[in-house]
């Protein structure tokens, strides 16, 4: 069996990883992780706070493109939507991802369970060294994109009935948050690779409710697909307000397409939607859930997009 120094020397000679993007909550001490990366001949890319007015999505994507692999650091007490959002971008770019989570932290969120997770403290230099050496050793010949979950080409089947009951209950209670959770669950179980809530800082909303990454959708709508959820669309004015909101999200994130989901409102063929931008899809939440009975989410979006591009608007 190779000793630790032998492994390190072999990796240093043949390694393909030379840069690493580190996604972590602001204020977290990363000196041990930084020192470990440097000692292995890897340049850490650790973004600092972006100045007001910065095109944050574009800057982050450029930094991620430079990196050979990505390390995400999860906080101990609560999830960081910003970290999950960056990991979603890294996933879409085909980067290998390593997660570091404190041993006593809450369970790793669903959308991050597909990554390699290490339950270690971010200031434990010895544990980080050992993990990096194992990762880099295994990386010799590691194919891009390995570890992604297989594409689910079938629908949700009987799960659909449960989701519809939950949807009806949330609709009666008037809870938009419940509607978001149900929609998110449906997307996660139906062929989307990554579904994360967009990061929010204080009262400033920097993105749509969800960002969805899917290899299958890439040729049709690109990555990520932004998803905005509204409980009710009452009239054309409400619809147009939602369109303006989505256009700003698309511009800020450099995304190509968005999906507007709504619980109550006119059917998609109604003239209420006549000013809908060409790159915005609209669909009632109930119609989405019902469609997921027999079809995977990427198939539904692909068909929506094709009809949107080739049909005449009402």
Poorly predicted sequence stretches spanning 5 or more consecutive residues: 1-8, 10-15, 140-150, 200-206
How many structural domains? Answer: 2
Largest sheet: 5 strands, parallel
CATH topology of the largest domain: Restriction Endonuclease
Helix content range: 40-55%
User: Helix-strand pattern, N to C?
Assistant: HEHEHEHEEHHHEEEEHEHEEHH
Number of strands: 12
- Strand residues, percent: 15-25%
CATH class of the largest domain: Alpha Beta
The dominant shape is: elongated
**Arithmetic mean pLDDT:** 78
Could you tell me the radius of gyration in angstroms?
A: 21 Å
Query: How many H/I helical runs?
Result: 11
- Strand arrangement within the widest β-sheet reads 2-1-3-4-5
**Assembly state of the chains shown:** single chain
What is the architecture of the largest domain at the second tier of CATH?
A: 3-Layer(aba) Sandwich
N- to C-terminal distance: 69 Å
């Amino acid at each position: 069996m190779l000793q630790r120094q032998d492994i390190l020397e072999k990796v240093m000679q043949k390694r393909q990883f030379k840069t690493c993007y580190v996604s972590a909550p602001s204020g977290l001490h990363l000196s041990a992780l930084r020192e470990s990366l440097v000692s292995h001949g890897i340049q850490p890319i650790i973004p600092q706070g972006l100045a007001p007015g910065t095109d944050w999505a574009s800057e982050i994507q450029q930094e991620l493109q430079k990196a050979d692999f990505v390390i995400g650091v999860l906080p101990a007490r609560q999830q960081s939507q910003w970290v999950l959002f960056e990991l979603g971008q890294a996933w879409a770019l085909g980067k290998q991802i390593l997660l570091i989570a404190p041993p006593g932290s809450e369970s790793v969120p669903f959308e991050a369970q597909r990554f390699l997770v290490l339950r270690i403290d971010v200031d434990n230099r010895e544990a980080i060294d050992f993990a990096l050496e194992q990762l880099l050793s295994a990386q010799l010949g590691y194919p891009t994109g390995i570890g992604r979950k297989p594409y689910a080409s079938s629908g949700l089947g009987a799960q659909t009935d449960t989701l519809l009951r939950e949807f009806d209950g949330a609709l009666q209670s008037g809870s938009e948050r419940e509607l978001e959770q149900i929609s998110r669950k449906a997307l996660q179980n139906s062929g989307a690779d990554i579904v994360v809530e967009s990061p929010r800082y204080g009262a400033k909303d920097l993105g749509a409710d969800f960002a969805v990454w899917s290899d299958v959708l890439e040729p049709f709508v690109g990555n990520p697909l932004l998803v905005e959820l509204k409980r009710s669309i009452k009239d054309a004015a409400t619809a147009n307000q939602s369109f303006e909101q989505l256009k700003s999200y698309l511009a800020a994130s450099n995304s190509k397409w968005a999906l507007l989901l709504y619980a109550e409102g006119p059917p998609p063929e109604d003239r209420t939607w006549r000013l809908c931008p060409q790159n915005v899809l609209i669909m009632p939440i109930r119609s989405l859930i019902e469609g997921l009975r027999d079809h995977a989410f990427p198939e539904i979006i692909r068909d929506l997009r094709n009809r949107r591009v080739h049909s005449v608007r009402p």
